[in-house]
């Protein structure tokens, strides 16, 4: 092996030098080469060999699975050992000038063994396993922008090989920074005040005349069960109290009367309608639900019109049998999307999140990386999602799946016996499910993918991450399982602990990439996370849908948080409950909203 072509040389060429241990053991202090605290030894090296001595360094970098960089060994099975103690510890360093290899104990003594005239060229070494710079004189890790750029170049080249053959779905908004817009409070003028007074009714007081009667929250109204429709009532209660969705409909952004006049083929319901096959609008029926629920009347209502419209939209689910609340949730969002798209004509793609109010509220973007275990080639795709389905029993090794925005075909679940809530004393948490969802997963031999670099099918690793967070994150816990082999279905009654406040930053693509590529001061072009997305990674829980009973004979209930108080919505009955009751509930669907919502800049210039 030639030193001019390789940083790592065989152990037979390693020089024997004096042993001298570092003062603080294995170094893990980082020193930047820009600004204060610059490394004088690195500066001296750069002044003698040129401003960018690492321009050919990408050829010496090997990209391992998950994109981690290390120094290439040629041949790959080459045994690398310290030139002094002949040991092969986990941390080995090689001099950037002479390619001599040392362990972390003997690397700092390397410059003292060379001639005084060339000593300044031998202070800088490279961590073989991590591809990071280390100064023997400062006994610290150091940063150099050109070096990090060379490493990142090698990593990105391995990730984009074959990108000309593949055209992944690139999110429209993922790389565009959103401008912060200053909030300006609105005060009605004289004409607007006249309109408000003339077209509004006084809202009844929330306090009863009887001081002993507790305060009733605005918008709390029971929904009558129309015959096994608790699945619909539970989801409707969550949707009716989803803050961005509530604000949209209560601000009259979708007026059902205007919608009926604007498009004669989309009607709410009219007795004098002569259209034999009218297309019913779920958005209009939801607008009517918002008007009824937030009218101040506390008498339970019957959502019969909404049920009828949903039956027309999802005819395969039109029956009085118990349905899955998650399937109903997906079907309703699909129905709102379809009817509003037909009303508006062609609009933005679903991946942008701006096609309709349903996707503006619940739409996120997931990143999927499939990495070849042989060469490190990474295939990246982006998929829109409106919720995330998580495995509850992680010990079974099943992978979490994501619900796409495409139309969902329903499947009928069969009976299953409930499972005990405890299993070997293990406690499942929502954070643990998210960790499992974003953890690298080795695909089986029957799932080999075609590597564009190797030009053959190879074993691979797959890792999911969240590219763009939605305004409202919905997590669906997969409690209903169906086995084709065993021809049986069952419900998983295992308890899941979920937090009231959730930090999503560890599961973002930006966090996953930082942990994958290591400590670099060179930014990844095209892979920088939207700053507004990172600053809005804090979520808080506002609704929980629970399921009790068996698979085909259970009951759905929704817990809502309004003004820091929890309420149990059990069809037509609404009662106030404590936080402990909510924490002990068997969560099936959890709804989290961003704690900080940002105003998006308008495309129209306002003078």
TrEMBL record:
GO terms for cellular component: nucleus; SAGA-type complex. Residues 1-32, 401-426 are annotated as: Disordered. The keyword Metal-binding applies. Residues 37-164 form the UBP-type domain. Residues 221-595 form the USP domain. It catalyses: Thiol-dependent hydrolysis of ester, thioester, amide, peptide and isopeptide bonds formed by the C-terminal Gly of ubiquitin (a 76-residue protein attached to proteins as an intracellular targeting signal). Its EC number is 3.4.19.12. Residues 1-17 have a biased composition (Polar residues). Residues 403-413 have a biased composition (Basic residues). GO terms for biological process: proteolysis. GO terms for molecular function: cysteine-type deubiquitinase activity; zinc ion binding. It comes from the Eukaryota. Recognizes and hydrolyzes the peptide bond at the C-terminal Gly of ubiquitin. Involved in the processing of poly-ubiquitin precursors as well as that of ubiquitinated proteins. Belongs to the peptidase C19 family. UBP8 subfamily. This is Ubiquitin carboxyl-terminal hydrolase.
């Amino acid at each position: 092996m030639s030193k001019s072509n390789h940083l790592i040389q065989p152990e037979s060429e390693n020089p024997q030098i004096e042993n001298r241990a570092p003062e603080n053991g294995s170094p893990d202090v980082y020193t930047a080469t820009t600004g204060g605290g610059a490394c004088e030894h690195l500066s001296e090296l750069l002044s003698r060999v040129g401003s960018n001595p690492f321009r050919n360094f990408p050829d010496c970098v090997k990209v391992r699975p998950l994109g981690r960089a290390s120094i290439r060994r040629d041949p790959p099975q080459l045994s690398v050992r310290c030139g002094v103690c002949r040991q092969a510890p986990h941390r080995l360093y090689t001099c950037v000038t002479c390619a001599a290899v040392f362990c972390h104990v003997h690397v700092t003594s390397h410059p003292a063994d060379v001639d005084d005239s060339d000593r300044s060229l031998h202070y800088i070494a490279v961590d073989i396993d991590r591809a990071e710079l280390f100064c023997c004189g400062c006994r610290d890790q150091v940063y150099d922008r050109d070096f990090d750029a060379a490493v990142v170049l090698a990593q990105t080249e391995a990730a984009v090989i074959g990108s000309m053959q593949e055209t992944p779905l690139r999110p429209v908004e993922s790389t565009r920074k959103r401008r912060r817009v200053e909030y300006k409070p609105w005060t009605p003028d004289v004409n607007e005040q006249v309109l408000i007074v003339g077209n509004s009714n006084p809202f009844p007081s929330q306090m009863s005349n009887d001081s002993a009667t507790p305060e009733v929250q605005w918008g709390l109204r029971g929904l009558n069960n129309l015959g096994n429709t608790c699945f619909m009532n539970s989801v409707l209660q969550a949707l009716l109290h989803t803050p961005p969705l509530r604000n949209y409909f209560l601000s009259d952004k979708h007026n059902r009367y205007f919608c009926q006049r604007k498009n004669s083929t989309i009607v709410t319901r009219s007795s004098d309608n002569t259209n034999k096959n009218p297309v019913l609008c779920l958005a209009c029926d939801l607008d009517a639900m918002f008007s009824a629920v937030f009218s101040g009347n506390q008498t339970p209502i019957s959502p019969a019109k909404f049920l009828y419209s949903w039956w027309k939209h999802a005819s395969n689910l039109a029956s009085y049998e118990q349905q899955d609340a998650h399937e109903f949730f997906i079907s309703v969002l699909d129905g709102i999307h379809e009817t509003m798209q037909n009303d508006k004509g062609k609009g933005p793609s679903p991946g942008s999140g701006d096609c309709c109010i349903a996707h503006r509220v619940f739409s996120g973007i997931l990143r999927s990386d499939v990495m070849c275990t042989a060469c490190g080639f990474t295939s990246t795709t982006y998929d829109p999602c409106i919720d995330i389905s998580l495995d509850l029993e992680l010990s079974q090794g099943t992978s979490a799946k994501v619900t796409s925005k495409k139309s969902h075909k329903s499947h009928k679940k069969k009976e299953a016996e409930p499972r005990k809530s405890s299993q070997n004393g293990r406690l499942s948490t929502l954070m643990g499910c998210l960790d499992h969802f974003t953890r690298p997963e080795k695909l089986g031999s029957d799932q080999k993918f075609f590597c564009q670099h190797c030009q053959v099918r190879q074993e691979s690793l797959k890792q999911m991450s969240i590219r763009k967070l939605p305004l409202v994150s919905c997590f669906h816990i997969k409690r209903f399982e169906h086995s084709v082999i065993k021809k049986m279905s069952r419900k998983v009654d295992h308890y899941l602990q979920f937090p009231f406040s959730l930090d999503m930053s560890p599961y973002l693509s930006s966090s996953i990439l930082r942990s994958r590529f290591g400590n670099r001061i060179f930014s990844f072009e095209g892979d920088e996370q939207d700053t507004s997305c990172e600053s809005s990674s804090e979520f808080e829980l506002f609704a929980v849908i629970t399921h009790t009973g068996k698979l085909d004979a259970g009951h759905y209930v929704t817990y809502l948080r309004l003004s820091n108080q929890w309420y149990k919505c059990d069809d037509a009955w609404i009662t106030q409950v404590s936080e402990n009751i909510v924490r002990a509930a068997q969560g099936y669907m959890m709804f989290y909203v961003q704690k900080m919502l940002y105003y998006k800049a308008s495309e129209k210039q306002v003078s």
